[in-house]
Amino acid sequence: MNWTEILLISSALAVDATVYSFSYGLILKQRRLISSLWLALTVGGYQAAMPLLGYLFGHELKSYVEGYAPVLVLFVFCILGSYIIYEAWLGEPDEENNNSTPLGFAALMLVGIATAIDAFAVGTGMALGNIGGHIQSTTTLLAVVGVIGAVTFICSMAAFHCARLLHHLPTRALETSAGLMLIALGIHATIWNY
User: Fold this and answer.
1) pTM to 2 decimals?
2) Which of 115, 134, 156, 184 has a 20 to 30 Å separation from 14 between CA atoms?
3) Would you give the DSSP letter of residue 100?
């Protein structure tokens, strides 16, 4: 088992969730601690579950998911980004706009799936021995997916709370920037995978 490779892969897989957490951290003003915990637990959980599913189901499901994954990520991030921008310009101007609310269950599930689709392919690579070396036991497999989930959780929490440093900027500008970052992330993920 190559743990250096697993840590590097974990960091790479955490990027989408980190960017999303940072974007949402820019705009959320209410219930920040509980919201950051739910967001980090969701994206970390999905980042751990998807490689496990990829490992268990191997390349049989890969052919079904692989073709649609970039389009699904683009769709989800464009919808979420557009909604944030829409909310930014719909409400009261700048500092008076406090409409940003914690993510609901459905939105959390969508974010979890959208940020972890690429982790399924990593799990498939692990099953084939192409990523991280040969996994010899269930304990090792659980440790690997645990590391992937933990790295994503930590990155998500850090990004969410680091975004607080930018709260002195006008709310409308932050919300528009956050929405544009999500749309750009969706476009980048689609272009990168095609």
Assistant:
1) 0.72
2) 134
3) -
